[in-house]
């Protein structure tokens, strides 16, 4: 039997009839501690009014392409996970549409399992995208006659990725949001090889009286965090900008791990002393 909703929840123009969401359980796009992301299909004509307003300029569901990504909780989860999932859905409703974000299309919250329906990005996350291409580029001789150009990442493409992500971050900041987990694994690459900021599970809106948001996060992401975020759990547009700088390292190294020679325990103190990562060998003066 379906689990009852644990507390009152307001339904709106984003709510969708579950019958119109076709989930392909054989095509898992991602997995977290409490949920999964599956490939699915939603006919454009069945999308709710909230989604219809947000996709006027969206190419993802034009031309008959009805593939979406569906995020859901596992069958067994803590109440706190359900509340966080609801908060993520509510937050995505308020963020609004932007071409450099993974946009929300609809949700199902009137019964279990709850669903968050978002844009589908067939090229997956940027970290895997770059690492796969790094392997290809290292294994194949550079010969334009035989090289698969879709698996080559040029410096021009790296710059485009950086600019696209920067546009998305600029929009979030202008709307008063702090993402708190900017990293290559949370950037998705669409069918046009355009980067879009995704995974808004840690994203928060800053209070009107403060430009900072204080909250603990997992220590596993510290090598993407700014010194004040590590030391005081203080997040802001500035800490997102710091994480973006670390993301640039991931881009230029085609998926390299930040601070490769630094022990996690000494990260904060070394940053406080003004130490920084060395410039990657393949990073030109112009870059």
Automatic annotation (TrEMBL):
It is found in: Membrane. Mg(2+) binds at residues 186, 199. Keywords: ATP-binding, Magnesium, Metal-binding, Nucleotide-binding. GO terms for biological process: cell surface receptor protein tyrosine kinase signaling pathway. It catalyses: L-tyrosyl-[protein] + ATP = O-phospho-L-tyrosyl-[protein] + ADP + H(+). Residues 23-287 form the Protein kinase domain. It comes from the Eukaryota. This is Protein kinase domain-containing protein. It comes from Pristionchus entomophagus.
């Amino acid at each position: 039997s379906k689990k009852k909703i644990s507390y009152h929840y307001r339904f709106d123009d984003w709510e969708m009839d579950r019958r119109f969401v076709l989930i392909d359980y054989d095509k898992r796009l991602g997995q977290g501690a409490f949920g999964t992301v599956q490939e699915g299909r939603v006919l454009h004509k069945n999308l709710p009014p909230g989604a219809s307003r947000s996709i006027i300029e969206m190419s993802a569901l034009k031309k008959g392409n009805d593939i979406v990504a569906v995020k859901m909780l596992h069958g067994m989860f803590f109440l706190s996970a359900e509340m966080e999932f609801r908060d993520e859905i509510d937050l995505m409703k308020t963020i609004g549409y932007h071409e450099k974000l993974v946009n929300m299309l609809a949700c199902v919250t009137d019964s279990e399992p709850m669903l968050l329906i978002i844009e589908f990005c067939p090229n997956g996350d940027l970290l895997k995208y770059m690492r796969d291409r790094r392997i290809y580029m290292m294994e194949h001789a550079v010969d334009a006659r035989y090289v698969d150009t879709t698996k080559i990442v040029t410096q021009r493409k790296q710059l485009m990725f950086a600019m696209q992500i920067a546009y998305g971050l600029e929009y979030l900041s202008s709307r008063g949001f702090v993402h708190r987990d900017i990293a290559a694994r949370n950037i998705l690459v669409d069918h046009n090889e355009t980067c879009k900021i995704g995974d808004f599970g840690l994203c928060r809106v800053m209070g009107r009286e403060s430009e900072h948001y204080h909250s603990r996060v997992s220590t596993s992401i510290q090598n993407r965090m700014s010194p004040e975020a590590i030391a005081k759990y203080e997040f802001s547009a500035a800490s997102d900008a710091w994480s973006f700088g670390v993301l640039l390292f991931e881009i230029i190294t085609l998926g390299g791990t930040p601070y490769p020679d630094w022990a996690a325990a000494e990260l904060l103190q070394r940053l406080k002393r003004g130490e920084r990562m060395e410039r990657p060998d393949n990073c030109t003066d112009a870059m």
